[in-house]
Amino acid sequence: NGIEKANTEVISNLYSLYSINFLKSGKYLLVC
User: Fold this and answer.
1) Mean of pLDDT over the chain
2) Looking at residue 19, what is its pLDDT?
3) Considering Cα of 2, then 4, then 5, then 11, what sign does the dihedral take?
């Protein structure tokens, strides 16, 4: 269970980072 929880946290962290980068690039596209 501990390993599964750790994996879920890592995946959610990566997903949030990806989402932030995607939003930033989207804003850049809108500006350009």
Assistant:
1) 81
2) 85
3) positive
